[in-house]
Design a protein that fits this description.
single chain, about 270 residues, Jelly Rolls, 2 domains, 4-stranded antiparallel sheet, 9 strands, transcription, HTH araC/xylS-type domain-containing protein, sequence-specific DNA binding
Length: about 270
């Protein structure tokens, strides 16, 4: 069971902010920084960049302060006997960089909302959100490396997935995050496991599958809606990705009580 004593997102403090609790809290404290900050770690004050997370266990010394200018963070103080908290592999009192800070920030926003209202499924919702947050923290902690372009690449990928029909080019994508096209291709594949243009294609085919599961548009209309200016090119690329032509995919999907998952390869 988990009990939240207080949770806040985008908490803003002046440049002279200091948080000093020598004996710690009698409960857990999780802090996610949005600006640079200094933390007391291993007997000395250390500087950390923005987008770091730090988990303090009950009764652990807590000391952190603003580093330069305004200090902003998300934080939650809570009690829990759940194993995903009490037996976590996360370090105590040692900040580590976040893999996807925007995702974690959204979880904090939802935790604030759920904690503010006494609704029927409040406890269950809070538990799900907190479990997800701890999963994201573990993913971040065991991430091998977070490059200087990491957060820009996440935003670029989100833009691709949200708008796959845009006429994306490598040059345009590289310009968006102010790096060379060659370097973009190198670090994009290293981070996501596929090239940026392959990611565009995957996103377009995924969208095309969704259209084909319904009977609203012709193949030509779907091709256009997915960013293809040439229907033959769309059909050829769709078959390469799925093993089926768009028309056969649509026919098969129409005959099924539920369409195949996006990740499923349809072979006809």
């Amino acid at each position: 069971m988990t009990n939240i004593f207080y949770v806040e997102n985008d908490a803003a403090h002046h440049s002279n902010f200091v948080f000093d609790i020598p004996q710690g809290h009698p409960c857990w404290l999780l802090v996610i920084t949005k600006t640079p900050a200094q933390f007391w770690v291993d007997g000395k004050l250390k500087e950390y960049p923005p987008h770091c997370a730090v988990l303090f266990e009950p009764h652990q010394k807590i000391y952190y302060r603003a580093s330069a200018g305004k200090y902003i963070n998300d934080w939650i103080r809570f009690a829990s006997d759940e194993p995903y908290v009490t037996e976590t592999s996360l370090p105590y009192g040692k900040p580590f960089p976040l893999d996807d800070p925007e995702y974690c920030h959204k979880l904090f926003q939802l935790l604030v909302v759920e904690n503010s209202f006494n609704k029927d499924y409040r406890e269950s919702s809070i538990d799900c959100l907190l479990r997800t947050l701890f999963n994201k923290l573990l993913e971040s902690y065991f991430q091998e490396e977070i490059s200087p372009q990491h957060y820009n690449l996440l935003k670029l990928r989100a833009a691709i997935h949200n708008n796959p029909s845009h006429p994306w080019t490598i040059s345009e994508m590289a310009k968006i995050i102010s790096i060379s096209p060659g370097y973009l291709q190198l670090i994009y594949k290293k981070l996501f496991g596929l090239s940026c243009m392959d990611d565009v294609i995957h996103s377009r085919i995924r969208l095309a599958k969704e259209y084909l599961r319904h009977d609203q548009y012709t193949v030509a209309e779907i091709a256009d809606r997915c960013g293809y200016r040439n229907v033959e090119h769309f059909c050829r690329q769709f078959k390469q990705m799925t093993g089926s032509s768009p028309k056969k995919f649509h026919k098969r999907a129409s005959n099924l009580t539920s369409g195949p998952a996006d990740s499923e390869k349809v072979i006809l």
